[in-house]
Structures are given as C-alpha cells and as structure tokens.
Write a structure and sequence with these properties.
The structure is a single chain. Helices cover about 0% and strands about 40% of the residues. It has about 170 residues and is mainly beta. The N and C termini lie far apart (about 120 Å).
C-alpha cells in the first residue's frame, strides 16, 4: 500500500479534439471549404472571400463580434461569418456626350431613384424627352411619367443613364 506521492511526478495527458472551422461567406460570394483537424494544430488560413460589388471587411464569430482567425486550430469547432461593406459606384446622367447634373454615388444593391429634375430640364428642338436609357439593364426610366420605371437596384459597377428623345409629330 502506498500512502505517499513523494518523489513521483504526475502529468495530465490530454488528447487533441477533432475540430472544424466553417466559413459562412454569404449569398453571391466565393465559398470556403470547412477546415477539419485537431485542436492546437497549425492550419493554412483560407484566402479572403470575394463578392462582386462588396469589400471583404473580415470575420465575425457566432455572436457577431469581430474576430481574427486563430493561428492554430481552437479547442472547439468554430463558425465564422464574412463581414462585407457595399462598394459605391457612379450613376452618370448624359445627354449625348454631355454630362447632365452631378455624378451620384450609390452602394451596390441599393435602390436608385432616377432623378426627376434633369430630364424635364433638357431641351432638344423638335423632340420630347422620353426618359433615361440605363447602360446596364437596357431599360428606359422616366420618373416624370407615372407609367414608366422610376427606380432600379444598383449593380456592382457604374451606370450611365443617357437621355432618350422622341421626335415630335405635327399634324
């Protein structure tokens, strides 16, 4: 029978846990495969995801707090969510090659209300302003006409709205 531990050393031995890092990058973004491994192992950090019209701002944890990916795999599995900020692009109004009004900045996926003042202020002899031709979607927008389109969703890139005219007919 042994009543003493004198002269003996005892060590706790821990086996590494199986863990997985998962990444939620969101709709329209590049995906990142889960990273499995053992806790405290080194791993290769993934490349930053990409999403058209957005800038990658880093990762958040399950509680929505900003985090930096760990250098080694953590003691427990973890999920990270990509944080994005919308890039602002230009909306440019033109009459032929002439700039009309101010260039506007709008964030990707935001609603853009087409300017209702610029069109009616334009004049072209023998013509009536018919609206603005959108360089991206090919549609005509005329907020002065209740039956016409008056807003669009900002794409991931600049939009030029070009004045469109109809010829006046005289009887």
């Amino acid at each position: 029978k042994m009543d003493s531990t004198e002269g003996k050393s005892f060590y706790a031995v821990f086996a590494p846990n199986d863990v997985t890092l998962t990444f939620n990058t969101g709709d329209g973004a590049t995906t990142i495969d889960p990273i499995p491994g053992k806790s405290d192992e080194e791993y290769k950090k993934p490349a930053d995801p990409e999403k058209p019209g957005y800038k990658f701002e880093g990762w958040t944890d399950k509680d929505g707090k900003d985090v930096v990916l760990p250098e080694r795999l953590p003691a427990a599995s973890a999920e990270y969510t990509a944080k994005w900020s919308a890039i602002k692009y230009n909306v440019i109004y033109k009459n032929g090659d002439i700039l009309v009004g101010e260039i506007e900045k709008h964030a990707t996926d935001s609603a853009v209300n087409v300017n209702a003042v610029y069109g009616p202020a334009l004049e072209m002899e023998g013509h009536t302003f018919a609206g603005w031709l959108n360089s991206v979607d090919g549609k005509i927008y005329n907020p002065a006409d209740a039956e016409s389109l008056s807003a669009f969703v900002m794409p991931a890139g600049d939009v030029t709205l070009t004045a469109q005219w109809t010829v006046n007919t005289y009887v």
